[in-house]
Amino acid sequence: MTNTDLSAAMTSFADDAPQPPIDLLERVETRHRRRRRAQAAVATCAAVAVVAAGAGLLRPAPETAQPAGPPATAGFHLPPVPATVPSIKQAWPDAVVADAIANTPAGRPPLVVGVLDPTHWLVVSQPDSGKMWSYAVADRKYRPLLTHTGGAVFQESLAVTGKAIVRAVAAGDHTEVWMSTRDGGNDHRVGTVNQKDSNSLWADDTNVYLSFNAVPGIFRMSLNDGRAEPLDGFDQFRLDKSPWAFSDAGPLRNVVTGQEIAVARSTGAGPTAPAGAQPSSAPSGEETVECTPAFCVAWDAAKFVQRPDGSERTPVPYPGVEMIMPGHLLVSDEKLLVDPLTGVMGQAGPECRYEGYLAMSGGVIVNWRCKGSLSQIFLRTEN
Fold first, then answer.
1. Which of residues 269 and 194 earns the better pLDDT score?
2. How far apart, in Å, are the Cα atoms of 229 and each of 57, 134, 223, 279?
3. pLDDT in tens, 295-314
4. How many Cβ atoms sit within 10 Å of the Cβ of residue 188?
5. Is this entry keyworded Transmembrane (predicted)?
6. Which fold has domain 3-380?
């Protein structure tokens, strides 16, 4: 999706008031531009979803309900588009669909910032009212979770671990890290980092890892005592809601284990980014590559999928393809979702347009504009 298209979609979204949430899509566009600028040479998987040993796949539909492609084997599966494309819910039965989430109890448009589990989402108001709710998708009901202090909350600066909700908030020229239990209890400030404008974080039950817009590098803070320090060996790396850090024209590297995955690039006349993308920062003579540990999308004049080492390079036969980083998905022509590892294919609806995604711990929420209404679909990924 081009930046021009996304800006037009945002304008349409704003005009549809009170459809929620306006600022959500502004932040999606900002995230899209930031990823294209900082990740044009190589990007990481977003969301905690993928493990290097074997790429945690989105759960496919049972064989009887899945006409879209063959089961996963070696190589990529990019089948022709059938005459009748199954819905996303048919293709991925575990998908959770929320249509037109109502305004929060504060009377303001909602912003989804995380998930406690696939059917209970963390929601704040836009603008932030200082309260966070758990939203039950099936019942369409809000439950108060916590009254948070320290500043506005956004999805790129929040993570849900097995025990806690961890968030980074702006505090002048530094950043504060706060955490509570998953039920909203014991909300407290953990510590501060002397950097501002955090653009992503990832956390486990021991540490939180942060990166910032102004400077490369990753900071690690203990959730036990609040001590923060730059992470050795990650001076040129950034995060994108995942333990897998990326660097321009470099490898993927795991912030917990240090494991590294080299990323191969073909040489030629240089990267040619798709229409609307920001100029690539890849070295001259290298194509543009965006990667998860499972696979990469590479493009010069055409687009390909390949393994990070460059093997199994396969042309992408669909128009208008871009990568949705968590979950290994391609979105084609703003309507079609394809998992190239399995051939599973689905669409939100023939009259729906893709409007970006929200990466978060545990999965990805894909936004669709369907007949003027915002539909948000959560796709769970395996850890």
1. 194
2. 33, 32, 13, 32
3. 888 887 778 899 999 999 99
4. 10
5. yes
6. Methylamine Dehydrogenase; Chain H (2.130.10)
CA distance 172 to 291: 34
Strand order in the sheet with 314-315: 288-291, 296-299, 303-306, 314-315
Query: 359 near 370, Cβ under 8 Å?
Result: no
Whole-number pLDDT of residue 29? 40
User: What is the tens place of the pLDDT at every residue in 320-337?
Assistant: 887 776 656 888 877 889
| CA distances, 72 to each of 62, 93, 157, 271 (Å) | 13, 17, 34, 31
Cβ contacts of 295 within 8 Å, gap of 6 or more: 55, 76, 305, 306, 307, 308, 328, 340, 341
Please report where in the chains the tokens 């900082």 appear, as a residue. 38
Please answer whether residues 48 and 362 qualify as being in contact, where contact means their C-beta atoms are separated by less than 8 angstroms: yes
- Residue 344 CA to residue 69 CA, distance in Å, equals 5
Q: Is the confidence at residue 56, as pLDDT, over 50?
A: no
Q: Prior bond to 71 cis, omega within 30? A: no
Domain boundaries, the chain: 3-380
d(CA 91, CA 344): 6
Which residue has better confidence, 67 or 93?
A: 93
pTM of the model: 0.75
Report pLDDT for 291: 85
